[in-house]
């Protein structure tokens, strides 16, 4: 009986030592390193929306209007090594496909942007679902997921949380740059 309790105690203590530590707050992403630590939060930046119309729209009323989200600065303050670092985020148990998007940004002279949609006189309105990158993720702990960066190309990205994009004039996004490991 004494041996049974010592084996039971050893098993319980082993399970407790290998418990998965998750981020405390929902929808705040962190860099997840190979040694299972996530001490670096992704920087949160403001993105603002602007619409651009073709010249024909002004002259004839026929044409397209495109809307873009802009982020000031040409690069994020956080650089992630491709395939070495991943992103961990507590999604509160919801599917990451429904709650977050990773979007590749186009770099301009002093800003980064992505097209959010367009509306045409004859074609109607459409959103730009192609901007989001297909997520490769796996469940971690009770309510978190680890998002793999191995499939991402080098460049600037933002992680957008769906419920933070409800304001039509601005949004909060988490930005990062992807590069190769040295």
What key attributes describe this structure?
182 residues; mainly beta; Immunoglobulin-like; 10-stranded mixed β-sheet; 5-stranded antiparallel β-sheet; disordered N terminus
How would you describe the overall organization of this protein?
The chain is mostly beta strands and 182 residues long. It has a domain at 20-48 and 69-112 and 130-179: Immunoglobulin-like. 14% of the residues lie in helices and 44% in strands. Strands 3, 4, 5, 7, 8, 9, 10, 11, 14 and 15 form a ten-stranded mixed sheet that branches. β12 and β13 (144-147) form a beta hairpin. The longest helix has 16 residues, at 2-17.
Shape: elongated
Q: Write down the CATH topology of the domain at 20-48 and 69-112 and 130-179.
A: Immunoglobulin-like
pLDDT < 50 runs, ≥5 residues: 1-18
Helix content range of the residues, please?
Answer: 10-25%
Strand content: 35-45%
Structural class estimated from helices and strands: mainly beta
User: What is the CATH first-level class name of the domain at 20-48 and 69-112 and 130-179?
Assistant: Mainly Beta
Largest sheet: 10 strands, mixed
